[in-house]
Amino acid sequence: MRTYLLGASLLILWLTLVSWKTTAVPEKLSDYGFFAGNLANQQPAADVVPYTLNTPLFSDYAEKLRFVKLPPGQSVTYTDTAVLNFPVGTTLIKTFYYPHDFRDPTKGRQLLETRLLVHQPGGWKALTYVWNSDQTDALLEVAGETKTVQYVDGQGSTRQHAYMIPNLNQCKGCHNRQEVMTPIGPSVRQLNGNLVYAGAASEENQLLHWQRTGMLTGMPALADCPRTPVWSKPETGSLNDRARAWLDINCAHCHNPQGPAMTSGLNLSYRETNPTALGILKTPVAAGRGSGGHAFDIVPGNPDESILIYRLHSTDPGDMMPELGRKTVHTESLELLRNWIKAMK
After folding, report:
1. Where does the record place the Cytochrome C Planctomycete-type domain (predicted)?
2. pTM here?
3. Average pLDDT along the chain
4. In 227-259, which positions are buried (b, 16+ CB within 10 angstroms) versus exposed (e)?
């Protein structure tokens, strides 16, 4: 059975390669004109707008630069129930990089990949561009790649580990909902935070900036807009809210009633109110050895007996969660989640 699935996966990837070769897709990131001047500086062109998320997805400690390019004359309609519904012609741009020294940004950085989500008439399409060693451009890559990264972390320790660049079919593993590819991050809740824009003397709320520049329509008063807390900043939300925010962005794109992991019965979305669906005293459907020998997804007051903690702590490909996008353990968020479960009555 495993051989059959591997063969089917390779066939799908080969068909994808053939499809891209017969479609007019730029071979270089520079061909798009998203950035002005030196491409590595990631200075957005006039029609490209940077954005950030309050609580982003963890990707082996990689930092990310995010941008959006809307089609000329078009905007996004406000909704606070899901990711924004961007018009056809939109491109979401995300560059992954590591500072050489997390304590000192002036020491430079290594750009690894730039991922695009392009909203075409037939739906969203994912493209990945891998940066060359000279950091002068990024080239289209559909088959995926693994790179070794080395950097000094925030505590002054030198770290080295593998960094995985997914192939195009693996992108679907997180972005598909009911077999339809969709963005994950840019929702009103996540965008409701401040950012310093080029040429500005101070921070501006992103939603207000989008409204002021005509990018966002139908927005109510800012005080009525939901806001995701920053998972690592207690001043932005309660322990429960920050833990739920981290689970929402890192897990709920699969663990929701329309996601690839819908059959698990686990819903880690921020809005979920059913304790069982959230995993509290819920038995796993088919975790296998991924349960770590534990009986419940979450055991209130006991993180060490909770499958959720076991799988987030594991780096075994057969046990760990998320299955894609990480090779390391996010120790800081793991501590947050352990404290969250300890506080449960």
Report:
1. 251-322
2. 0.88
3. 89
4. bbbbbeeeebbeeebbbbbbbbbbbbbbbbeeb
